[in-house]
Specification:
Residues 13-234 form the Solute-binding protein family 3/N-terminal domain. By secondary structure, this protein is an alpha/beta fold. It has helices at 35-47, 58-67, 112-115, 128-135, 147-155, 169-174, 204-220, 222-230, and strands spanning 2-4, 14-18, 26-28, 31-33, 51-55, 71-77, 87-102, 121-124, 141-144, 161-165, 183-198. A 9-stranded mixed sheet has the order 1-5-2-6-11-7-10-8-9. The protein has a two-stranded antiparallel sheet with strand order 3-4.
Length: 238
């Protein structure tokens, strides 16, 4: 957990949650690290606000941010299903989400309609992509506990198809002892932008201050420096 002290808009310290999702956010030597963590740390430094960052299971951070004041969660994909649930600062990540299968599977997907016919599709139940596909009515989704279970099932051919985004694909595959050369993308169905999500009761003035600070980081090049250090060559959000 990291703590930051200073004068800011929040009367009470902010509680910020993130998850194990490298290279965006993860634990390293007992401390939060990653692209998202560095962006948030710099915003805190520039605003002089008091906050703590804690790496927790996604479901815990998500529920806390829905229900507790002065709470934030990052990085969170901003989707239609989540739009009214949080207040948003960003974007800080752009990613493309696709269906993946083991190389040589012989499977083809050219549309979401095709995806209904490829057998079981494993996705962590708490992910935005699961929510998106569930809203589309796919009957063959299998909600797993987390990405390690998903990738292990793919490795052992217990499911034919999984879902992942291009930004974290390599680290996710490693959870199941797989490499990018072991899989092939079948169909990209979602282009998403990740934000810092705040509890709905968060002061609008704080949201505006964080957004202004992030915009300034993008303008002065400090955001790009962080982004390229963690995701070299990847597209940056506008």
């Amino acid at each position: 957990m990291l703590c930051y002290a200073g004068l800011g808009l929040a009367a009470e310290p902010l509680q910020l949650y993130t998850e194990e999702y490298p290279p965006l956010n993860f634990s390293q030597a007992g401390k939060p690290a990653g692209l998202g963590v560095e962006v948030v740390e710099e915003i805190l430094r520039r605003t002089g606000q008091q906050a703590s960052i804690e790496v927790v299971p996604w479901a815990r951070g998500y529920q806390a941010t829905l229900s507790q004041p002065n709470t934030g969660l990052f990085v969170a994909m901003r989707t239609e299903e989540r739009e009214q649930l949080f207040k948003w600062v960003g974007p800080i990540i752009v990613g493309v989400t696709s269906f993946y299968a083991l190389k040589g599977s012989g499977l083809t997907i050219a549309s979401l309609e095709d995806a209904r016919k490829v057998g079981t599709i494993a996705v962590p139940r708490q992910w935005y992509s699961y929510q998106t596909l569930e809203a589309k009515g796919l009957p063959n989704l299998y909600g797993v506990i987390g990405p390690k279970q998903m990738m292990t099932m793919l490795h052992h051919r217990r499911v034919p198809v999984v879902v992942a985004d291009n930004v974290t694909l390599e680290s996710l595959l490693a959870l199941g002892d797989l490499k990018p050369t072991d899989v092939e993308p079948l169909y990209s169905f979602l282009r998403s932008y990740a934000y810092i999500a705040f509890s709905p009761s968060t002061d609008d003035a704080l949201i505006a201050q964080w957004q202004t600070t992030l915009d300034a980081m993008k303008a002065d090049g400090s955001f790009a420096a962080i982004y390229q250090r963690w995701l070299p060559g990847q597209e940056m959000p506008d």
